[in-house]
Design a protein that fits this description.
Distance between the termini: 124 Å
Radius of gyration: 41 Å
Number of helices: 2
Helix content: 25-40%
Number of strands: 3
């Protein structure tokens, strides 16, 4: 039992100890809110914040979207040019095979399928999956092809279009009722065509 004469201990803190206790309490409060205490806070009565605001995040996302659009657009143009280069190379390779066929048989084939399997193993396909345009030019029964018109449709205007034949096989005699095609280029259609 405590007597009336018993004294309670008096706890006194110095000014520096009081300041340290307040600082520890503020530090504990920040850690409870997920705020890093390593960031200096020069105004203890104001909550110091770290991280990004919503506006900053939206601006970064918008910049990334714009850059990805620019890169995608430039890559799609490069891919189209690569497919066009492949078309032109295959047309020139097919011309060599056609010349080899003519040197063996004395005339050109009435169809590209006549080249299989003696001259080529498979017909060349356009990168889009379709076959190239081939028109045997000739006359007679059976039709003897003395020439041909070979072509492919490009995706973009190419500097090599100035070197192609721009021949219109719709106006020439054709073997087997094969429809011809105009080889001339215009603003919307880029046809790379070749003749012997």
């Amino acid at each position: 039992m405590l007597g009336k004469n018993r004294e309670c201990p008096v706890v006194q803190f110095t000014l520096n100890e009081t300041h340290n206790m307040k600082h520890e309490a503020l530090k504990q409060k920040k850690e409870n809110r997920g705020i890093s205490s390593s960031v200096p806070c020069f105004m203890p009565h104001v909550l110091c914040r770290t991280g990004f605001t919503l506006i900053e995040l939206l601006v970064v996302i918008a910049i990334i979207a714009i850059l990805s659009t620019i890169v995608t657009t430039s890559l799609s143009g490069s891919k189209a040019k690569a497919r066009d280069a492949e078309r032109i190379a295959e047309i020139n390779d097919t011309r060599l095979v056609l010349e080899h066929y003519r040197s063996v048989n004395g005339h050109y084939p009435t169809s590209l399928s006549d080249l299989i399997p003696a001259f080529i193993s498979t017909l060349p396909k356009d990168p889009s999956g379709s076959t190239y345009l081939y028109v045997p030019l000739g006359s007679g029964t059976p039709c003897i092809a003395y020439s041909y018109h070979l072509g492919g449709i490009l995706e973009s205007n190419n500097s090599l279009l100035g070197d192609d034949s721009d021949f219109d096989s719709t106006l020439a005699p054709r073997c087997g009722g094969v429809a011809g095609f105009p080889g001339a280029d215009n603003a919307t259609s880029f046809i790379y065509d070749a003749r012997p």
